[in-house]
Amino acid sequence: MVSANGGLSLERKRAIVSALCKSRSLDASKFLEDEGSDIKSLSVNIMKTAYENNEEFNKWVAFAENFPSDSAACLKGLSQLNEYLINYSVLVGGGYRPSDADIIVFSTVHPYVVSLPNTDRNKLPHVMRWMDYIQSTHDFGELFEKIVLEKAPFDPPLAKQTTKVEAEVSTKKVESSTKKAAPNAKAANSGAEPEKKSDSKQATGKTEAATEKKKLPEKVPDDKEKELSVTLLKIQVGLIRKASKHPSADSLLVEEIDVGEGKCRQVVSGLAKYCSPDELTNRLVVLITNVKPGKLRDVVSEGLVLCASNADHTVVEPLIVPQGAKLGECITFSGHEGKPEDVLNPKKKQLDKITPNLFTDDKGVATFKGVPFMTSAGPCTSTIPNGSVK
After folding, report:
1. Alpha-carbon distance 116 to 147, whole Å?
2. Distance between CA 301 and CA 295 in Å, rounded?
3. What is the pLDDT of residue 205?
4. What is the pLDDT, as a whole number, of residue 121?
5. Do 106 and 134 touch, CB atoms closer than 8 A?
6. Are 89 and 65 in contact (CB under 8 A)?
7. Regarding beta strands 307-309 and 304-305, do their DSSP bridges make them parallel or antiparallel, or are they unpaired?
8. Distance (Å) of CA 43 to CA 11, 97, 174
9. What is the pTM of this model?
10. For the chain, which ranges sit under pLDDT 50?
């Protein structure tokens, strides 16, 4: 006869085994047969089986085991890793959370990468970006920290770029300063001196006027909020079928992007200093497709590829689309419903008002006001945490 406590313990084991097996896509029945084992033994067996059956994980374990030691073969292996990381943030899972495979491969290639000359490192931008991401999420102890800090900080040696956005910000600051200066200039030109009256009637009038000024903006937020709604943008998953250099601008690339419309869209982007055409070819990206088509240095552009960048714009990369996302699907934002504009109106500056609210969070997830860019396969991400998205 089974005691009440024994029955409760058995049910607890079954619940744990079922949950662990489901999370690892394993058949729970063969583990449930071993009811005599304790929870620790059952858990260890499940995890061991999960790793043994995980082809992705085992592939990278084999990569680590067979990683060469001579310089020529080592660089070839790193080049293969770099090519794989063009489309992925981490090695296993297709998401943005590092796995045990990432830790194993990082620990394997680390001593080889830190000994590479800068000319070779420059050929491995995705490996460098991945290593920087892994070391920022895991503490590998003093040995790794010392090597990273003294010999090889994993920052890709990319040239700083003065962006259009920075120019726009400067222009706005000048305009703002001009507007603030205007009243004083008017007073100076008229020769009038500011009035200094203190009778109660005028003081009351000023108080009422100030109150009115405070009340007026209360009617504005609805319209502003509508303009700032991210749902006005049509943001889709696209596949870059072909990328090439712009015929007359060294800082621009021209991409042919498939969003499931039957023909590719031609998009011009300022990524030449950050990505080569080969690195972008066959890469999934996120792009705004309802911007008004226009010409950039005489080449028509029919979209805007969204990229994350760090604070000083020395590191820029297209957002990472999770593996399994569908070509052409629209990005959604939980809690935000609405129909995108057919074509954004440049005169309303809708894009300028929305993009300041696009950024990556501390885990690298792309968001609108903290709400993730979602696809059917999960959120879009970046290896650049707390960055701007434009």
Report:
1. 13
2. 6
3. 53
4. 84
5. yes
6. no
7. unpaired
8. 15, 22, 64
9. 0.46
10. 1-4, 145-174, 176-198, 200-201, 211-226
